[in-house]
Amino acid sequence: MMNSVEQLSEVSLILGSRKRTLLLFVLKDQPMSYMELSRKFEKLDIKIGSSEVYKHLDILRKNNYIVKHGKVYLITLKGKTLIEGLEELVNVPAKAPKLQLTF
């Protein structure tokens, strides 16, 4: 079992790449093959080479954020939970909490 520091480090690794994070967002909506994922990046006008796609998919798979069934990649519950947490985070207002001083 990983401790919390190791878990935070793992999440940092996954989120440390815009393309890896985007792969999770794309797979959240539906399972896709390598070719479908590549076309999705092309439609979004994000340049990514085939070896780079495979590298990111491999990192996500080895850390159990996605699985591969045949030629199709699917997001796991772990990956879906991470993406849902990010979606919640981006909707949190960026304002400092009000400080109350007591004497």
Q: What's this model, at a glance?
A:
With 103 residues, this protein is mainly alpha-helical.
Provide the succession of SSEs: HHEHHEEH
The largest sheet has its strands arranged as 1-3-2
CATH topology of the domain at 18-84: Arc Repressor Mutant, subunit A
Structural class: mainly alpha
CATH architecture of the domain at 18-84: Orthogonal Bundle
What percent of the residues sit in helical stretches (DSSP H or I)? 55-70%
Biggest sheet features: 3 strands, antiparallel
Kindly report how far apart the N and C termini lie. 45 Å
The Rg value, from CA coordinates, equals 17 Å
Can you give the mean pLDDT?
Answer: 89
Shape: elongated
List the helices and strands and how they pair.
Blueprint: H1 4-15, H2 18-29, E1 32-33, H3 34-43, H4 50-62, E2 66-69, E3 72-75, H5 77-90
Antiparallel strand pairs: 1-3, 2-3
Helix pairs in contact: 2-4
Structure explained in plain terms:
- The mean pLDDT is 89.
- The chain has a domain at 18-84: Arc Repressor Mutant, subunit A.
- The longest helix has 14 residues, at 77-90.
- It has helices at 4-15, 18-29, 34-43, 50-62, 77-90, and strands spanning 32-33, 66-69, 72-75.
- A three-stranded antiparallel β-sheet has the order 1-3-2.
- The chain contains five helices and three strands; from the N terminus they run H-H-E-H-H-E-E-H.
- The protein is elongated, with a radius of gyration of 17 Å.
- By secondary structure, the protein is mainly alpha-helical.
